[in-house]
Every structure is written in C-alpha cells, then in structure tokens.
Design a protein that fits this description.
This protein is an alpha+beta fold. It contains three helices and 20 strands. It has three domains: 2-31 and 313-341; 36-175 and 267-304, Immunoglobulins (Immunoglobulin-like), CATH 2.60.40; 178-263, Collagen-binding surface protein Cna, B-type domain (Immunoglobulin-like, Sandwich), CATH 2.60.40. The strands form five sheets. Strands 2, 3, 4, 6, 9 and 19 form a six-stranded antiparallel beta sheet that branches. Strands 5-1-10-20 form a four-stranded mixed beta sheet, with no helix packed on it. The chain has a four-stranded mixed beta sheet with strand order 15-12-18-17. Strand 7 and strand 8 form a beta hairpin. The longest helix has 31 residues, at 2-32. It starts with a helix and ends with a helix.
C-alpha cells in the first residue's frame, strides 16, 4: 500500500512538473508577442519647438487577414478605409478623431510634449492606432495638429519597432474676431438609390468640444447651414445619425465643413490592405499617413530587440521552469525507486 501511494505521488509530481514547464513556455511565448513597440511624436519645426502640446492615443482596430477592422469603441462607426490613398486615409483619421473627441472616448494613453517637442508612447501591441492632438497657442500663432492613423506591428523577423512620427501642423493667427462658417451635407454614390436618402439630417455644431447648437439640413436650405462665431475657437460638426448603408467622412478647411455620406452595401469598417516592404526585403509596419510635403505625417521605424519588455512580469518564468524540472526529476526518481524495491 505504501509503495502504491509513493508511485502515485511520483506520477503526480511528474504531471505537475510538466504543467509548470508548459506554462513557463506559454508565458515566454505570450510575453515575446506582447507590447514592446513604441511611437514617438516629434512636434517641432526649424522655427519652433512645441512644448506642452497634448496628445491622445487610441487603438482603433487591427488587421484580420487582409483587412483592417475597427474594434472596441470605434467598431460602431460607419467609417470606411477602402480607399487607401493618402487623402482618403487622412479624411478617415479626421473622422475617427471627430468621434473620439466629441463622443469623449477614453484614450488608451495620453501625454504632452516635453521641452524637446517629443512625446513617446511605449508598450504598444500590434494593431491600428490613432493619435490626435489639441491646438496650442504660441504668441499670436495657433498650431493645429492633424490626426494620424498608423499600423504598428513587428517586423518580418519578429523584432519590435520604434516609430518616429512628424505630425502635420497647420497654423492660424489668433485675432479674437468673428468669422463666417458653413457646413454642407454631400450625398455620394447613390444616384441609382435615391430612396435611401433621408428627407433631412440633424447636425450638431461644437465649439471647443462644447455643444453650440443643433441644426437641420434638407433640400429647402440646400443641405447647408451658415453661422457667425469667434474664429479662435476649435469648431467641429457631427451628423447625429448616419443613414443606413451609408459611410461618413468629415472634412474641413479653416471655415468650411463637409459631411459626406457615401452609399455602400459593404461592411463599412473593413478594407483590404497591403504591407509596406522596405529596402532589403524586410517587412515594416504599414504606415497609413505619409508624405509631409502633401500635408501628411512622416513615420519612420527602427527595430528593437530589447527583452524582457517593460511592464511584463518575467520572474515567474524561470521559477516555473525550474520548478517544473525539479518536480519531474523528483517524481521520476520516486517512481523508479519504487519499481526497484518491488
């Protein structure tokens, strides 16, 4: 009876040892695939370094096979990334930023640029991210940053990446004067399905993220509304309810806003994407907004092989691995010893 108990105990120790060993390997695998990527925003020009500019970071989606899919708080929005041209993706970034700001979506991370004009976001998992900043005034000049959409992923050889991004910065002169603003609704791609249009839409107008007024656009006003207001305020508009089977894009210049509804029977938050291949054949993360000469952000990347990753608890890995070896060894000896005694 005693020998049988010892044999069973030895078998149990072996089993526990194998489990611990497998768990240690699993933790190592998960940790190696977890967040160690980083993104650094560089907010300065030859003339000015912007200190204290606030930025919010959002994870808006991920790659599913050959598609980008909006996820989390952004999954409900009818925003399409089917057109991957620089101008279209910039409009998508502005649209998602509009929702994030006006619907007060919690940011994944946030911060302000330092004296060097830099802000670094660490511990980023693979996925599609958006960063958007708040206007900042330096002297009489108001700097207005553009939102960036960017995919973060490991390089082809599995290394982590450090990305540097130079956001586009538009400017205007603070005056304290009033200006005329306009918002216009535009229907697209529904010439053969006019019955899908609504008779009117409600549009909310926001000044510095506070609701200013709600207006109705329809054929009687040529789907347009004009208002006079202070030009130093950050104005935004939002369609209260996007019609079914339509996507939405919010575009604007300094004083004119367009709400573009495009008819589409496709799922709006999926799009086929391709990967940017760098020189030498290595695959880098797909950079969504590029070419600062056209008004878009420039993003560069460097691989990073630092392990372990910040924020990961690594001490259990060697403990569990060693514990697994010990349990297996003791269990095996107990079993073999009992066999010799028999």
């Amino acid at each position: 009876m005693h020998m049988k108990i010892c044999r069973n105990f030895g078998a149990a120790l072996c089993f526990v040892g194998v489990i611990l060993w497998l768990m240690a390997g699993l933790m190592l695998s998960v940790s190696a695939d977890s967040a160690a990527n980083s993104l650094t925003l560089i907010c300065k020009t030859e003339k000015v370094t912007l200190t204290g500019m606030h930025w919010d970071l959002y994870r808006v989606g991920s790659r599913k096979g050959g598609n980008f899919v909006l996820e989390g708080d952004f999954a409900k929005y009818p925003v399409s990334l089917e057109d991957m041209s620089s101008s279209a993706v910039t409009e998508a970034a502005k649209t998602l930023e509009n929702y994030a700001v006006l619907d007060k979506i919690p940011a994944l991370d946030q911060g302000e640029t330092g004296k060097d004009g830099l802000l670094r976001f660490d511990n980023l998992n693979s996925g599609l991210y958006m960063v958007c900043g708040k206007n900042i005034q330096v002297g009489d000049t108001i700097y207005m940053p553009s939102a960036i959409l960017i995919e973060i992923m490991k390089s082809e050889d599995g290394k982590n990446v450090d990305l540097d991004a130079y956001p586009k910065l538009s400017t205007k002169t603070a005056s304290g004067e009033n200006s005329k603003y306009a918002v216009k609704k535009i229907w697209e791609n529904d010439e053969n399905a006019l019955e899908n249009r609504t008779a009117s839409i409600s549009v909310e107008i926001y000044g510095d993220e506070k609701l200013y007024e709600t207006v109705t656009l329809d054929e009687s006003n040529d789907w347009t509304y004009l208002w006079m207001a202070e030009s130093d305020i950050d104005w935004r508009v939002k369609e209260v309810k996007v019609p079914e089977n339509y996507t939405v894009v919010y575009s604007s210049n300094e004083k004119q806003f367009a709400i573009v509804n495009t008819y589409s029977e496709k799922t709006p938050n999926q799009t086929t994407v391709s990967t940017t291949v760098a020189s030498g054949g290595s695959t880098r993360p797909t950079v969504i907004t590029t070419n600062p000469s056209n008004g878009y952000s420039n993003v560069t990347s460097n691989t990073n092989t630092k392990l372990p990753q910040t924020g990961q608890l690594w001490w259990p890995v060697p403990v569990m691995a060693c514990g697994g070896v010990i349990f297996i060894t003791v269990g095996a000896r107990l079993k073999s010893g009992n066999k010799r005694d028999n």
